[in-house]
Specification:
This protein is an alpha/beta fold. It has 15 helices and 15 strands. Strand 1 and strand 2 form a beta hairpin. The longest helix is centred in the first third of the chain and has 17 residues. The radius of gyration is 22 Å and the shape is globular.
Length: 414
């Protein structure tokens, strides 16, 4: 059998499939970038005679982590902006920095962000791409990136078809990349109802996932619900029509109108009203919510209403957001921040927020975010001396506590 087709067996002290309990003295069988088998080491040896063996030693082997929300374009902004205070002031500072950068700066930022993600065990990222014209110039990615093309018509409310023309051109020219593509109408304060509707139609036509920022700040809530506040005044000053403000919350304006397809990813969802909760309960499970714990803390926002989402059957996923509002792109640190905010939450559930749940949200349940036959062979290994419980909760606790860059395999290769 040619070496490229040989089955390889990887052994670890503990294997964590995520979708099933941990396996002591376990391993995975891999061939041609796909997992063939997962089980005890002895069973794998018997079941795959002639396979190449690789003993990883006293470590935990688990699926590569999935970052459900990131802006790689802004990797160069680490430490450049300050949190707290006015959200609209932060947006204006961000936009001023954006204007000072050129194409080379953004290409370098994306490459640096991708490298940082991989270093910390993230093998898949759902990235919002504000400058789609950059993608054809990027080298092949070392991780799986889902490029969500960002669209908006904030200033003059361009014809929606005109705003989406760039998206169509982008998908025609982007070519093949490891990962996939999606569409991201930015937020209700920068996207008209018509553009939301056309984005949804576009996502359905091309079978693309869709995500949008929603209910992110108190200023957004005041803008839509009361027609006032700093964000309202800033957007009015740059020419945004404000006739959709006053009366409805952002959640009601978007979800209440029925314009988003089922499965759309809702990013942030920090500021929700009682009426919003009624609306979300009625559509429970239809719209996954992406929470970015350290960005949430950066803006000093009220406690994220995790209990409501859990009780309502709404899946919560984890992301890092950008380095304009976070200190790094380390998903282990993001999971620990979630644990710190919600100490009673089972570490197994937090791990699922960075593995199986985001995989399911982009239609790749069983293919990403878990170690299982038929899954892509994306996995990581972290040191483990086995101190503590060997239960799923005990092992997950040690995973969250990891502060060492893991060994990383994508499609079975380091």
């Amino acid at each position: 059998m040619p070496p490229s087709e040989a089955t390889r067996l990887f052994r670890a002290r503990t294997v964590v499939p995520v979708s099933r309990p941990p396996i002591a003295d376990g391993g995975v069988a891999v061939r041609e970038g796909e997992i063939l088998d997962v089980g005890s080491w002895n069973d794998l040896i018997r079941g795959h005679p002639g396979a190449i063996h690789e003993d990883l030693g006293e470590c935990i082997l688990l699926p590569g982590l999935i970052n459900a929300h990131c802006h790689l374009d802004y990797t160069m902004m680490r430490g450049a902006l300050f949190g707290g205070g006015s959200f609209s002031a932060w947006i204006q500072r961000l936009n001023a920095m954006r204007r000072s950068l050129d194409q080379r700066d953004y290409l370098d930022a994306i490459a640096a962000g991708e490298s940082e993600l991989r270093r910390w065990g993230c093998t898949t990222v759902l990235n919002i791409e504000s400058f789609p014209e950059l993608v054809p110039f990027l080298p092949d990615s070392s991780i799986r990136i889902w490029w969500f093309l960002e669209v908006m018509d904030v200033r003059s409310r361009l014809e929606s078809s005109e705003a989406l023309a760039g998206a169509i051109h982008f998908f025609e020219k982007a070519g093949e990349h490891r990962g996939g593509f999606g569409i991201s109408p930015h937020a209700p304060y920068t996207v008209s109802h018509d553009l939301y509707a056309l984005s949804a139609s576009f996502a359905g036509k091309y079978n693309l996932p869709l995500c949008t920022h929603l209910a992110e700040s108190d200023e957004e809530l005041a803008m839509f619900l009361k027609g006032e506040g700093a964000l309202h005044e800033f957007l009015r000053s740059i020419g945004r029509p404000m006739d959709d403000c006053g009366g409805k919350s952002p959640v009601q304006a978007v979800l209440g109108s029925g314009i988003l397809p089922e499965g759309s990813l809702l990013v942030h969802m920090n500021m929700i009203t009682g009426a919003d909760k009624d609306l979300l309960r009625a559509s429970a499970g239809m719209y996954p919510v992406i929470h970015c714990p350290r960005t949430h803390a950066f803006f000093e926002r009220p406690t994220f209403d995790l209990e409501f989402y859990r009780e309502s059957g709404i899946p919560v996923l984890l992301g890092t957001d950008s380095l304009a509002s976070n200190e790094d792109l380390n998903m282990f640190a993001e999971m620990r921040a979630m644990q710190s905010s919600f100490p009673g939450l089972d570490p197994c559930e937090i791990l699922a927020m960075a593995t199986t749940r985001p995989a399911g949200a982009i239609g790749l349940e069983g293919r990403l975010g878990e170690l299982a036959p038929g899954a892509m062979a994306d996995f990581i290994a972290i040191p483990d001396q086995g101190e503590g419980s060997e239960s799923a909760t005990g092992v997950s606790e040690r995973i969250l506590a990891n502060r060492m860059p893991p060994a990383v395999w994508i499609a079975g290769r380091r």
